[in-house]
Amino acid sequence: MAENDNKLTIPGYVSTSEAAKMLGVSNHRMYQYVKANRLPVVRVGRAFMLRVEDVERFRPNPSGRMRKKAPAWRGYRSRGKVLITDIVVPVLSHQQQAVVDKLMAIQQTNQHTFPGTIARYIIKGDDELTSIHMLLIWKDIEMPDQKIRQQHLLAFQEEFTNLLDWKRAQYTTNESIIHT
User: Fold this and answer.
1) 82-175 has which CATH code?
2) Which of 6, 14, 83, 169 is most buried, most CB within 10 Å of its CB?
3) Burial class (CB in 10 A: 0-12, 13-18, 19+), 19
4) pTM, rounded to two decimals
5) Which of 63, 49, 58 is nearest to 18 (CA)?
6) CB within 8 A of 111, min separation 6: which ones?
7) Where is the signal peptide (predicted)?
8) C-alpha distance from residue 160 to each of 15, 96, 107, 123, 163 (Å)
9) pLDDT tens digit sequence for 60-114
């Protein structure tokens, strides 16, 4: 399935490489979807074109094995505790895309990992991204002291100085009772 080097444009259709970019997959994976008849294609000369509507509606199968039952609730069985720091920070006006872009860059470079955390989540506060929630999950016996935690949080805040309203941020740290 070779795609012609000429840029063929048909309204409402995209090339396989453009469709791969839209889905965030490799060209090879895109051809696998086409070969498995999961995405219909139209052959135009030597090129394969896909309807934009089909690409936008397409959902890949979940990776890995599907759960047959939900994981059981459990408690932390060590001498320590699991603590969750929740930080809610408003996004400054018209900075939503810049926040997302900055977060993707941080993910790519693996920065701001908050040493001592066992999990970290940054969650959209709502569909308009008016705020973000940062969940930092720690084992108290591995949690660094307050000074080190503050240094890492300050470094994160500096990255987002003109994007997030740190003056109105709300901070809480609570103990987990049960988890999965």
Assistant:
1) 3.30.70.100
2) 14
3) buried
4) 0.67
5) 49
6) 159
7) none
8) 37, 12, 14, 15, 5
9) 877 788 888 998 998 877 778 899 999 999 999 999 999 999 999 999 999 999 9
